[in-house]
Amino acid sequence: MILPGAFSAAQKRRAEFWIAHDPSRVVGSTDNGLELHSDERGLAFRFRFPNTALGNEAKRLVADKEYMGMSVGCEFQYRTETICDESVHIIHTAYLEQISLVKAGAIEKAFAVLAKPDRPLSENCHTGSLASDWAYVQFMRACQKTMAAVR
What is the pLDDT of residue 113? Predict the structure, then answer.
């Protein structure tokens, strides 16, 4: 379980944007295009793809819907509690090291879509635009599952 605000420290440290958790495929970082926003709802990001071979590959993977998930690599601090007879790690502080574009991440609601940066990231997080992006991602994933089943 990740507590609200656990990623607040993420905004203060350098983090990289990778493809598929592969350290040889670093597309960029918070030094050049990766923006982070953490609040009580979670962690949001925006990345401006550089005009490089890896930047163009990452952009194509998202545009072609091959990679629609996001996953993070982080260092974290947690406590363990027993909830309903289950041992649960409760993460209270997370230090983001890298965020990766992946086919599907461990957390279904961590997704990637191409968007035009029309306003600051923090505003996008509170206007409902991310909710409509999530609905779109759910629809596209359902279409992909249907097509795979038909094949």
Answer: 65
